[in-house]
Task: inverse folding
DNA sequence: TGTCCACATTTTGTCGACAATATCTACGAT
DNA sequence: ATCGTAGATATTGTCGACAAAATGTGGACA
């Protein structure tokens, strides 16, 4: 039998739209017309609607009943709440991972991070992807599907921020070396602290860049709420 | 103008179905036929489908493409993962709430808990509702919509467990007095510990009752995975 | 000139029908 | 007798059309 060709339109469109939102090909705040999207994908509105519903519940879209959808705006408040939740969940993941990772898994993680040995000359898209995978794998060891799905979603939102701020982004890079060291030392408390520091640092840079650079542009100012 | 009469069918049906699942009027593992539900609500399948999609993404249903939906089964693994996530998120909420609650809010919480002064003679439904409100309000003070929505969802799932195990449930009641005391003392660390203990205790009781009592019934055994 | 109302337009919400897919059953070949 | 297969059946996936709601526009009237 063929591997996996037949997929639901809904799923295909969902992934496609989500990807466009994450990479900011669909800009934050941009309106999304169902009929228009349907024409673009050459389908009826039904699969579009289902995809939009999913995206709305995952905060990639904002929908007003009987009015329409817009791509979720980005605000400092939003950035803060996102990283606050990541802090809470991922520090817990890091702590438990420290005692549960086996040698092979640790080696895999380290190999993954080899990209950031010289972050200056690495491709930004690759760094973003690597970062996502690293955090994702730490969530994986929880073996808790709820946690994995949650972290996955939060990481996707973070990636969207990465793409959104990429142009303004100074090429600073928050490394994972301290987390890695704590994991190798099998030190849960230290891993928790390292992860907490990592996320907090990332959040501070993100919100700083966002409020200082992006806030200056009038067209985007509407999305900024203090 | 009238307050808010006109509501989307989708929303109405979503809430209705969710409520039936939570109260176990729709039993775990029971199949859900779209056409059947549509006939029951006297609508077309469209609003049903949208409601089912939402319920699936919130883990109230399990859907297999081109096959159908069943009400999400309950397993010990599931109970553990639910309470593990609640532990992570709600301990953080309790800690920050301890320093952020004002006097009025503390009084409101205490009044809410007056029901459990003598839990033996209280109505079980009321206790369940009270418990949900208490945890929900602690999440509220985070002022973080992501956290609030997440806790809300996890609480709804917990309530479903309450209803499911209600018949087998010994009338033990895990009080909130220690949490309340820590909040009144404005002691964040203590509130975190108290909340952690509270959730862990609840989880232990839940999974014990589930595996010992429910596991004995053949019709339900299929849902139990270790 | 400003306000209000009716109508036209646009967009989402719902519907019934049909297509695609999976499951079940009966029949036939070995 | 068993396995495989072809057709029948049931259920979900997709579609195009219509209904309902919200918004925009123009004119009548004070």
Result:
């Amino acid at each position: 039998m063929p591997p996996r060709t037949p997929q639901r339109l809904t799923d295909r469109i969902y992934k496609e739209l989500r990807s466009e939102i994450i990479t900011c090909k669909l800009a934050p705040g941009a309106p999304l017309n169902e009929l228009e999207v349907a024409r673009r994908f050459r389908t009826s509105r039904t699969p579009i609607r289902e995809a939009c519903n999913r995206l709305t519940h995952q905060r990639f879209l904002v929908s007003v009943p009987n009015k329409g959808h817009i791509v979720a705006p980005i605000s400092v408040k939003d950035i803060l709440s996102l990283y606050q939740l990541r802090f809470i969940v991922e520090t817990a993941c890091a702590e438990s991972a420290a005692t549960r990772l086996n040698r092979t898994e640790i080696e895999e993680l380290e190999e993954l991070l080899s990209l950031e040995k010289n972050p200056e000359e690495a491709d930004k898209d690759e760094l973003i992807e690597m970062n996502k995978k690293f955090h994702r794998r730490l969530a994986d060891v929880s073996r808790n599907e709820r946690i994995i799905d949650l972290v996955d979603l939060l990481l996707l939102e973070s990636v969207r921020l990465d793409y959104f701020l990429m142009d303004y982004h100074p090429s600073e890079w928050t490394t994972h070396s301290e987390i890695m060291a704590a994991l190798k030392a099998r030190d849960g408390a230290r891993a928790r602290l390292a992860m907490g520091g990592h996320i907090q640092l990332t959040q501070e840079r993100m919100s700083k860049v966002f409020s200082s650079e992006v806030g200056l542009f009038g067209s985007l100012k509407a999305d900024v709420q203090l």
